[in-house]
Amino acid sequence: MAECPIKKSPIGGGGTRNRDWWPNELKLNILRQHTAVTNPLKDFNYSEAFKTLDYEAVKKDLKALMTDSQEWWPADFGHYGGLFVRMAWHSAGTYRVFDGRGGGGDGQQRFAPLNSWPDNVSLDKARRLIWPIKQKYGDKISWADLILLTGNVAIEDMGLPTFGFAGGRPDTWEADESVYWGGETTWLGNDVRYENGQEGVKGHGVVDGDEGPKKDHKDIHSRELEKPIAAAHMGLIYVNPEGPDGVPDPVASARDIRTTFSRMAMNDEETVALIAGGHAFGKTHGAAPSDNVGKEPEAAEIAEQGLGWRNAHKSGKGPDTITSGLEVIWTSTPVKWSNKYLEYLFKYEWELTKSPAGANQWVAKTDDKIIPDAYDPNVKHKPRMLTSDLALRFDPEYEKISRRFAENPDQLADAFTRAWFKLLHRDMGPRSRWVGPEIPKEVLLWEDPIPAPEGPVIDDKDIATLKKDLLATGVEPSKLIRVAWASASTFRGSDKRGGANGARIRLEPQKDWEVNNPKELSEVLSALVGVQKNFSGKKVSLADLIVLAGSAAVEKAAGISVSFAPGRGDASQEQTDIESFTHLEPAADGFRNYGKSTSRVRTEQFLVDRAALLTLSAPELTALVGGLRVLGTNYDGSSYGVFTKRPGQLTNDFFVNLLDMNTAWKATGSDGEIYEGTDRKSGEKKWTGTRADLVFGSHAELRAVAEVYGAAGGEQKLKKDFVAAWVKVMNLDRFDLG
Ligand code: HEB
């Protein structure tokens, strides 16, 4: 076939695009993803549908499928368990703590780039193997749930009872464009992520400033990985199995494993358990050199029907399969749970060798041929391992844990099943989203548990009384709004963490975040506690009061009613994993005019990224920023962007004044962060603003929305839209409301 014509085609989205002309334009596309337009199941309540699923029947069908080897993609050792565990692991394992993105919660493995990542070779086949089950149960089980459940059932079917399973992950229907997977343009490249990682490793934010001495990004023993990435190479889930950059150095490999797994929220013990438990199953595939392998799914011919990596080596499947290019079988019972992986890891000494495809791997120095072949019952192999496996023995910290697990198989089983459960459920958010009959009773700290409110929930009469009390505290309304916003806007739609529920803003670490203005925060909180104490009647949570106070203040400023949904609970410090919550601290937050550009991220990009995490659309973002500014809610009370002579009233002044052609704008400093607006004629200084303010006038799409609010009728519309977006943000974590 001739060269693909699509890029040059005069229709169907071909041609040179805005993105090609202006690669640095501020991209709003991440604010219009996963909408009703792409979803064939709109107005569909997935968790209700899941409740009608015959869960046991699905599990029974999955178990039957495990050993029903298909001619078109035969099962190693007559059992698909290993392949399915890897599918589930690779689905969930893209999760990273910094922005909560990645993970198995959206069924993204079906879409590019994940469907075509070099680390996901052969998982196209795994997903097709379970299509008959997806087809049979239809909308009652999402792909996201089915992919993970299949891995879970595989483990169970190979002899290890799991910790449980929760469904409740609705599918997405398009590639998630919001995830930064790295800046490299070649598969398995990592020059950008390590080069950028050298800029400094300070702070908790997604992207740190450029403090710190530069290091050599090629030094595999000291280089730092760029945030928020959690993989050592473009297109891998975690690390290079052959060792960093292919260098077969187990200790250096351990360093990469520790970095990447901790960014997946796993500590050393969980990491060892996951790897040792995972590689109790299955095998690796590298029957022949990778030049036998054809194009990945996204680039393959139409006749391939979404499959990829056609393998020209002999039969191209079964014993001839090429996946990673490594050829290892870890244990003598690859389709049965055991701790033989760790047993062999310590029992044998290991010698560097090459796979048939030429990749670095290790073989036991022994004559013991104890490992079965996946297809030929007459063939036996020596034990073999990957460089990343030897890391569990040669890293001193991992070694301690590995030896303990080797000697105590029960501890391995317990640690593995718990870490596996966490892996699959880490990005699901609160329990109120979980459905199905296998939800474990034990509540885990990483769930960010929130106790249910005590006693009956406050009613409309209570709410009316409380609103009066709150506004009578003497605390400035802008502060009440600021605190409510600070509390609710920690929410991230990516992993459903954060939010106002739990009132964690009064706990470590949030109470000390600079963006929360700690001193003022504690004053406001003590005023709220006063109201809580004096309220005679039902018990009201502080979490509810924080939101109600902000909403009452907004209501007063807007002059229209702001709805309020009570029922939040207050979490305790013990229920709060401090280290894990540090990842929610924003490096910059344009909603509160906090923070500024770094060497790689502009202030307005931080703003749009935060809006994406808050699941806001561009109009919602615009209404919120315009409204918050005139309400005077900058984190430090500054006047940046407060383009009004009557702060505290919800007007459209921000837009009217920003769009006023009588004003000329000029940067005040060389960093281009702060701008001064002066009267064109008199030269009189009128306003100051940040990039997060001025972008609503400079960016064509944001300006288009700003014009709506700045024109006739705009004020009424802004009030309505601001209040709706405000209520949305206050309730983002209220999955219990249904
Ligand atoms: Fe794994 C397989 C690497 C972790 C589970 N792994 C595998 C392979 C490789 C690897 C290379 C092969 C593929 C083919 O087929 O060829 N891993 C790795 C690394 C790491 C890991 C580097 C980090 C260190 N895994 C892991 C985990 C888990 C796992 C964590 C779970 C939990 N894997 C797995 C399985 C398998 C694998 C199950 C098998 C598959 C089959 O059988 O097919």
Fold topology:
Elements: H1 18-21, H2 46-51, H3 55-66, H4 81-92, H5 123-129, H6 131-137, H7 143-157, H8 191-197, H9 250-262, H10 268-278, H11 340-347, E1 350-354, E2 360-364, E3 371-372, E4 380-381, E5 384-385, H12 387-394, H13 396-407, H14 409-425, H15 460-471, H16 477-488, H17 518-534, H18 542-558, H19 578-582, H20 603-613, H21 618-630, H22 653-658, E6 663-667, E7 674-679, E8 685-690, H23 691-698, H24 700-710, H25 714-730
Antiparallel strand pairs: 1-2, 2-5, 3-4, 6-7, 7-8
Helix pairs in contact: 3-7, 4-7, 9-12, 10-13, 10-14, 11-13, 12-13, 13-14, 15-18, 16-18, 17-18, 18-25, 21-24, 21-25, 23-24, 24-25
In short:
Strand 1 and strand 2 form a beta hairpin. The chain has 738 residues and is mainly α. The chain is built from 25 helices and eight strands.
